[in-house]
Amino acid sequence: MRAKAVAGALAILLAAGFGVAGDFGTGANRFTIDFVTMPGDAGDLGSWSADNYTFSGVNRDDYRIGLYEITNDQWNKFRTELGVPVTGSPSDAYDDSPYWLETNVPTNMVSWYEAAQFVNWLNTSTGHHAAYKFTGMQGQSDYAFDTWDSSEAVGNTNLYRHKDAFYYLPTEDEWVKAAYWNGTSIQTFATPDGSAPIQGVETNWGRNSPWNVGSGSEELNGTFDMMGNVSEWLESPFDDTSYGTASFRGLRGGRYWDGISHGLGYYDRGIGNPRYEYPVRGFRVASQIPEPATLALLALGGLALIRGRHSL
Q1: What's the DSSP call for residue 150?
Q2: What single-letter DSSP state applies at residue 198?
Q3: Closest listed residue to residue 250, CA positions, set 229, 232, 262, 264
Q4: What are phi and psi of 49, to 5 degrees?
Q5: In sequence order, which residues have a C-beta less than 8 Å from that of residue 218 and are 6 or more positions away?
Q6: Is CATH 3.90.1580.10 the classification given to domain 19-291?
Q7: Cα distances (angstroms) measured from residue 134 to each of 87, 130, 182, 234
Q8: Residue 281: beta bridge partners?
Q9: Element of type H or E holding 11
Q10: Quick check: pTM over 0.90?
């Protein structure tokens, strides 16, 4: 009976797009990241264009994306657990602390290289392979980002991400799919019906500061703040197919100071030097789907959570 209950719970959870939370850190530094599941082959994007750049969307396995942007609380707990400074080369990629200091706002003033170290720790602290290659000694000034050989890379082509990594920064395809894909096509906005978001209700834009993650309305695929709060680092280079270590990276999502005509729609792409840190930049995390045994252990608890939500 219990096996049937677990199987049934799994089916309900996956059908509902429920993603099992990841649990990280120890003691007072323990935190979770909540995910929502996105379908792979059943929801291929095909080819699509934005800002005069054409993407050839590819079939992929199911994956998960964070419901929320990473917060200052999660970032600070990571730094404590890491045990060495988040630093390296170039030094100016690591020289600023968050400008907005509130506990549950998105962490900010974070470079791409810093986000990559956070993701690597998510992997190595849970027994997985690091997503991103660094050379030198972590916590020292010689610690520098490098690329994987094609034999180690995802699909033999994404030289930034190791093929065995479990947690990672989303590619632009993965981010856009999670924000705008309605199962049939890409919508203009990430609202459930594709309409323009309401300022201060469905997204945080046209304001003077970020708000606590999840303060707005739930978006199309269960996420929050993909249309606004801070712009988010993508794993993908903006347009460099050779995957240079210092190549400009893509950014997605509106910043809190943006207007509706910039940053909120699927057609808006951002670009950033991976070493630069700004108050309007942060990130969210994506991951593979846990193994069935792991899902089964948490399925009944997740089902109870869903039932609890419906009973509120």
Answers
A1: T
A2: P
A3: 232
A4: -125, 150
A5: 192, 224
A6: yes
A7: 11, 9, 37, 18
A8: 231
A9: helix 2-15
A10: no
How far is the C-alpha of 117 from the C-alpha of 310, rounded, in Å?
38
Confidence (pLDDT) at 312 = 36
Taking only the tens place, the pLDDT of each residue in 159-185 is: 999 999 999 999 998 999 999 998 888
Contact assessment for residue 187 and residue 194, using Cβ atoms and an 8 Å cutoff: yes
CB 236 within 8 A of CB 185: no
288, 166 Cβ separation under 8 angstroms: yes
pLDDT in tens, 90-126: 999 999 899 999 999 999 999 999 999 999 999 999 9
Token duo for residue 252: 């997605």
**How far is residue 166 from each of residues 25, 124, 177, measured CA to CA in Å?**
16, 10, 19
Assigned token pair, 241: 């197919």
Cα angle value 304/70/266 (rounded, 5°): 95
Nearest to residue 176, comparing CAs of 258, 266, 78?
A: 266
What is the Cα–Cα distance from 87 to 92, expressed in whole angstroms? Answer: 9
| pLDDT for residue 223 is more than 50 | yes
Nearest to 77 by CA among 109, 104, 96: 104
Residues 182 and 176: their CA atoms lie apart, in Å, by 11
User: What would the two tokens of residue 278 be?
Assistant: 């700004």
Coil, helix or strand at residue 217: coil
In the block, tokens 């969210």 appear at 284
Residue 89 carries which DSSP code?
A: B
What is the DSSP track for 60-125?
A: ---EEEESSPPBHHHHHHHHHHH-S-S--BSGGGS----SS--TTSBP-S--HHHHHHHHHHHHHT
Is 70 or 45 the better-scoring residue by pLDDT?
A: 70
Euclidean distance between CA atoms 189 and 157, whole angstroms:
30
